[in-house]
Design a protein that fits this description.
- This protein is of the alpha+beta class and about 475 residues long.
- Helix content is about 40%, strand content about 20%.
- The protein is built from 17 helices and 20 strands.
- The chain has helices spanning about 10-25, 30-35, 60-70, 125-130, 150-155, 160-165, 165-170, 200-205, 235-250, 260-270, 290-305, 320-330, 330-340, 355-370, 395-415, 430-440, 440-450; strands at about 30, 50-55, 75-80, 95-100, 105-110, 115-120, 135, 170-180, 185, 210-220, 220, 225-235, 255-260, 280-290, 310-315, 345, 345-350, 375-380, 385, 390.
- Helix 14 (about 355-370) runs antiparallel to helix 15.
- The radius of gyration is 22 Å and the shape is globular.
- The two termini are about 20 Å apart.
- The mean pLDDT is about 95.
Length: about 475
Amino acid sequence: MQHVKLPRNEQGIQTVLAVLKQKFGERVQTGTSICEQHGHTTTWIENQPPDGVVFAHSTAEVADIVTICSAHEVPVIAYGTGTSLEGHLNAPAGGISIDVSQMDKVLAVNAGDLDCRVQPGVTREDLNTYLRDRGLFFPIDPGANASLGGMAATNASGTNAVRYGTMKDNVLSLEAVMADGRIIRTGARARKSSAGYDLTRLLVGSEGTLCIITEITLQLQGIPEAISSAYCSFPSVDAACQTVMAVIQYGLPVARIELLDEVMVKAINPYAQLGLPETPLLLLEFHGTEASVVEQSEIFAALSEEHGGNGYKATETTEERNRLWKARHEAYWAMLQYRPGTHGVATDVCVPISKLAECVRASQTRASELGLIVPIVGHVGDGNFHATPLVDMSDPDEVDRAARFVSWLNELAISMDGTCTGEHGIGQGKMPYLVKELGEATDFMSDIKRALDPKGIMNPGKIF
């Protein structure tokens, strides 16, 4: 998928590169390979690399880089681990990629207050490894081992969102470098505040278009006394989705509840050697005390049986639980192995729970009509699912059919009072649908963008 290039400030870019090389030396890289690695690489959107990459080590350095770029009106794009899915990292007007992956320190852990302060390059897995001995964990799990700065920038969520919420629910405050190079802090460690506008939640999910995040203060959770996973097969997607509705309406506090349709189960079985029935599947996790986990499991088993669920099985060991969730997190690679030589076009939508079954069923029907193989997997406890056409990129007709499917799915979700993106963000890929979803509200978003970034240097060509 191609996107229109924006006008380049050639003189400004060359001037900025010269200044940055003088100031940062070998930490400024302009090689073709490394610049392409810092453009978009994870889906079918055209790679639009920056002109240079600067590896920043501190907030002061980020501010210095942004100040230099601002003075010459050169775009800046933040880079963490490169796992975003909608073209967020592309540089359609050229410019400078600020790589914060080496800003990877856990700066403070306040165990008594259940919070911590981290630099943006810390990944979620590294943070949880650091916290484990303290009996704490950070629950947001988008699957990929993403950087926490990137997760905040895109308002990531994932498998635990049904119980623990998304990034916006777990970020207490931010330190950020604004478009003119000024450094701000959006709040304190207090769990609530009525002090002025909520800048924290404005910047969380802004996709690098308003600022570059340089520190994040995060809310933590205690590691549960007991954790149990389970899976249950269903005769149809409808039956599985009806069970999800029943679970939510009952108020069962599941930590995770994931749907895999029959195509996804067929893909994941040989990849992870699971041997599951090749019908729609719900994969769950329960957190709590030993007694409450058993109770949750028993209640779910009864609810699933009422909707035709069969083969319900709770895991008995940590190894078995980890094996199941490792398979779920590697679903993308399982899909690619299911149809070798293809590219997985990951997209996501989110609809009200009452519309979930209808939306998933319609997606399967539409994929069949277009002759596409589209595995579906989703964080269905909050109505969010991913449909991933497996596309032969050398076949223009198949690429066109996949593009039509993705467009149709986004518009279907919006028509159901849902959203074109539950967690991937807008970036470049979802731009055509934002106005359809929010109408004139996007005008006010654009006004905020212009007010905070009057020169338009912060990740241009994204969202609007």
